[in-house]
Task: structure prediction
Amino acid sequence: MVSFSVVIGVVFGIVLIASGIGLLLLQNWARILAIIYSVLEMIVVLAGAVFSQRLLMQAMTTQVHGAPAGVIEVVAKISFALGIVIGLAYPVLLLIFMTRPKIIEAFNSPGLQEPH
Result:
């Protein structure tokens, strides 16, 4: 059975390619698709963080031979936080840029909507 995250990754990859091509052509549908992608990706990252919380708790209780007490807990917490920050960086920045007034204006400029 194919993993849910693999299916989401493939679908999101296709959406990003389509949106990216449309953004290069200054198509407003691509800007809207990029906004939708960014919101959905933020939801997926945060949902993944909730589900990985259980793994974090297991990692914090694991004792590694030769590791000082508490090191695994600190590494697990830092990795968890960095994963969330890195996972949210692109969709948050994309959302910010695609909703800026000058960007909206550029994508809604007459003559750029439909190439003849």
